[in-house]
Amino acid sequence: MGLPLPAVAAPFSGAFRAALPALIAAVGQPRGRTLPNEPSRSRAPGHSGTFVGHRPYAPGDDLRRIDWAAYARSGELHVKRFEQEERRAATLLLDLSPRLLCGSPQRRLAQLRLAAVLGGAMLRHLDALAVVAPGGPPNALFAGVAAQEGLLLHLERLPVVAAPAAAALPLLCQRGVPQRVYWLGDFAGLDAVAPVLAAVRRRGGSVTGILPALASDLQPPVLGYQRIVDPETGASHAVVVDQAMAEAVASELAAHARAQALLFAQSGCRWLRWPVPAADDLQTAPYRGLAVLGGG
Amino acid sequence: MELLHPERLVWLLLLPVLWWLARPPVPRAVCWTPHSAQWQQALARMGRRAPRRRGLPFLLLALAAIAAGLAWAGPVVVARPGPTRLVVLCDGSASLAQVHAGQQAWTVAAQRLRERLARVPSSVDVTLLRCGGPLLRRHGPSARALQDLGTPAGTVVADLPALAASLANPDTAVWTVTDGQGQSALPAVGSLSLVGAPADNAAVLAVRTTDHWPLPELELEVDVVLFAARAGPVQLVVTGGVATAAPQTVALEPGVPATVRFALRRLPAGGRCVVQVVWPGDALPTDDRWELELPPLPAPRLAVLDAGDGGPFAMAAARALAQEVGGEVVSGTAGTAAGLLLVDGGSTPLVPGQVRALTFGCQLTATAPAAEPWYGPVLTEWDRAAPLLAGLELGELRIAAAVPDLLPPGEVLWWGAVPGLPAAPLLVVVPAAGRTDLASVHCAFRLVDSNLPLLAAFPQLLRRLFVRCYGSGAQITVHSEPPPLGEVDLRAPARGPERPLPEFGAPAQDLRAVLLAVAALLLGLRAWWR
Fold first, then answer.
1. Are A253 and A217 in contact (CB under 8 A)?
2. Which of A108, B359, B403, B424 could tie A100 with a disulfide, CB 3.0–4.6 Å?
3. Pairwise CA distance, residues A115 & B279, whole Å
4. Cis bond before residue B134 (omega within 30° of 0)
5. B-chain residues within 8 Å CB-CB of A221?
6. How far is CA B322 from CA B106, B214, B315, B317, B474, in A?
7. C-alpha angle with apex B84: B83 to B86, nearest 5 degrees?
């Protein structure tokens, strides 16, 4: 049955744009991937790129970067130095799936607004920001506060498209190992999320999963005879929801939420359930300290 | 199949309405959720399924509606044109007993009838007429089962072509099953099946006997005939009831009867005598035998009882009779075995009809003790055509005295009279009750009181009375009959092409009841199904 998808709400109203600077300020200073002994916002070697030389090993250095050939020749430990293309950068990984059209307000609306706020903070405090959207346009790079408007325009034009989570990994690694990834989505299919988390962690990156949490993610459904529709597949089935059924569904949803948190914890990643504010709620409270919570 | 009211099929347009009504209810509320998998797990855990159309109950309901709609339209199977009645003319004549390859033609005919009648539709009314031998009629199931059709015998008394022509009409099919024997032509109408084949046959046409009973001599004249392509020797054998007789062989020309004579000697115990013709290649064995039942020979002993005052006539009569039947005269004392008791005068405790006896003026226990004699009675009447008296000259009989009251009731042979009195019996035969081989003969006068012993017919009369006392016990019983002439010569039966049975008609069938029953059954299943 081809039920039409819910209409896509415009994410950035005039009121939101007006409130955006205050919201960015409330987020705080996000942290990019900082290297020891390197000043921020300066050109410094990174993990990948062109080899620029050695420096003596210091405690806390990544053991994988030790040049064992040089140690064999000199008898002293040295680590390799590379020139990074972006330094102190962060990546926003967005989910464009139709599943995010569910909820009121829509989870997609909350995701894009959160991306705009987090992105604005990153442009203000970090060197660069990459926006990765599997199934959507190519990766977009933004740098500097002046790119704020371009970021909003980019986010606004993101389509609604279903793409597997595994498609995110090649996009993330397109320009080297991602330093810090903020993954925004509904994380409904955990089986597809786990390999991506593991792959990023193997490459030395870190992931913070942020779920714009709706009330319906945990609360039992409304009682009655209703049609349940999966926006991504279009599959639907009629269900009589009585009290017992509502409790069973709530139990499954709670188990799913626990599985989400457990997956990120087991992957060594941060996990954040961010309660979605109302669409017209532009208070700074929901966003306060978000960058600090999500940073690591 | 046709519909009497095809316009009523419009009611089948209600089927889409049924389909629409059978749909599951449509949920008013729609819940978009990314957690479809969790919903499914919850449903599985609760053991619930989504409401859906129940396929089989709806199918049963739809089929019931279709069946009812068709029944309402009046479906009928149209009648098929063709005969609805079958008359089988079955030739059961004696020639059907001919044997080919070890199988009797009658058996082949019955087998064909049984096989073909099994395929005749049950709506066809079947009548079977056996036209040869005894005329038998079987109808309905008994005709299909060929019940009690007997064995081949007799001749075809009906004109099969004319009978078939008279019976055949558009509604009646006629099927003639025959061997073509004894008929000038085969039926030209109806179906035809032929059994048997041209064959050779030897037959006993007749057997004539010359019986010398109670003497053992017996003479047979056997008429025998051979129907074959060439002349040949035929052997005749006589067995049973007679002393051993040598077989006789006679050379017969095809189609020319010959007579063979046998001079035989009967056995005292009697028995069944069989005359058998033996010829290799004989296709019809049933006309090769002629059977006679020979009665036992009587004990040739004549006992005489007389009052002593009757002169020599009783003894003379006994001797004459003994000479006639080849017996001997013995004294009539107690304990003596005798085949006939001859009593003249006196009084004898004898029950009429229970003893083979010949009495003349004898006082019996069953008759009146005191009787007034008639003097000079005149023989007024006797049955000249009766077997006992036929050809005997009794006009010279003179009776001096007679006592009619001495006679027991019985079959009167002679009537006598005296002036002034009504006629009374003078000679009676008393048969035994319920038996045909035992009788006694009683005369109202003594031999000495008449000139009967002096008449020329007296010895023959005595012999006939002796035979009468034995009744059927003195007669040869013939168990065979001459074969029908048309059933003996098997060389050229009527032949022609066989014609199969036509396609039978079938009456129209109304299918409404069947469809309504089907609809009710489907509805019942729909109600029962859970």
1. yes
2. A108
3. 126
4. no
5. 31
6. 54, 11, 10, 8, 16
7. 85
Contact A227 B38 (CB under 8 A): no
Q: Which of B269, B264, B270 is nearest to B210 (CA)?
A: B264
pLDDT in tens, B140-181: 999 999 998 889 988 887 889 999 999 999 999 999 999 998
As given in the structure block, the two tokens for residue B424 are: 């009374």
Q: Rounded CA gap, A196 and A167, in Å?
A: 9
Alpha-carbon distance of B203 to B224, in angstroms, equals: 6
The neighbour count for residue B367, using CB atoms within 10 Å, is 17
User: Could you identify the residue written with the tokens 């705009």?
Assistant: A116
Reported as type and span, the H/E element at residue B172 is strand B172-178
Strand A89-94 and strand A128-132: the pairing is parallel
Label each residue of B303-320 as H, E or C.
EEEECCCCCCHHHHHHHH
CA angle B411, B417, B419 (to 5 degrees): 160
Chain B within 8 Å of A245 (Cβ-Cβ)? yes
Cα gap B401→B447, rounded to integer Å: 10
Q: Which residues in A242-271 are b (16+ Cβ under 10 Å) and which e?
A: eeebbebbbebbeebbeebeebbeebebbb
- Closest residue by Cα to residue B180 from B516, B515, B495: B495
pTM value? Answer: 0.52
Classify strands B271-278 and B301-306 as parallel, antiparallel or unpaired: unpaired
User: How far does B521 lie from chain A, in Å, by closest CA?
Assistant: 33
Q: Per-residue confidence at A40, pLDDT binned at 50, 70, 90? A: very low
Percent of chain B with pLDDT over 70: 99
Q: What pLDDT score was predicted for residue A39?
A: 40
Residues B399-405, mean pLDDT to the nearest whole number:
91
Q: Report d(CA A67, CA A80) in Å as an integer.
A: 6
Is B163 within 8 Å of B471 (Cβ atoms)?
Answer: no
Hey, what are A230's tokens?
């999966």
Q: Is A6 on the interface with B (CB under 8 A)?
A: yes
Instruction: Please spell the DSSP secondary structure of B436-462, one letter per residue.
Output: SS-EEEEESS-GGGBSGGGSTTHHHHH
Interface A–B counts its CB contacts (< 8 A) at 91
3-state secondary structure labels for all residues of A109-167: HHHHHHHHHHHHHHHHHCCEEEEECCCCCCCEEECCHHHHHHHHHHHHCCCCCCCCHHH
Distance from CA of B16 to the nearest CA of A (A): 21
| Sign of the alpha-carbon dihedral angle for B516, B520, B526, B527 | positive
Task: At A27, list the tokens.
Answer: 């987020």
**Is the Cβ of A239 closer than 8 Å to some Cβ of chain B?**
yes
Q: How far apart are CA B371 and CA B364, in angstroms?
A: 12
Backbone angles phi, psi at B355, to 5 degrees: -135, 135
Q: For an interface test with B, which of A1, A97, A228, A230 has the most B Cβ atoms less than 10 Å from its Cβ?
A: A228
Instruction: Measure CA B179 to chain center.
Output: 21
- Main-chain dihedrals φ then ψ at residue A278, nearest 5 degrees: -65, 160
Interface of A with B in 80-99 (CB under 8 A): 97, 99
Distance, in Å, from the CA atom of B266 to the CA atom of B243, rounded to the nearest integer, reads 6
Q: Extract the tokens encoding A31.
A: 């942290």
Contact B50 A237 (CB under 8 A): yes
- Say how far apart CA B63 and CA A197 lie, in whole Å: 58
Residues A137 and A133: their CA atoms lie apart, in Å, by 7
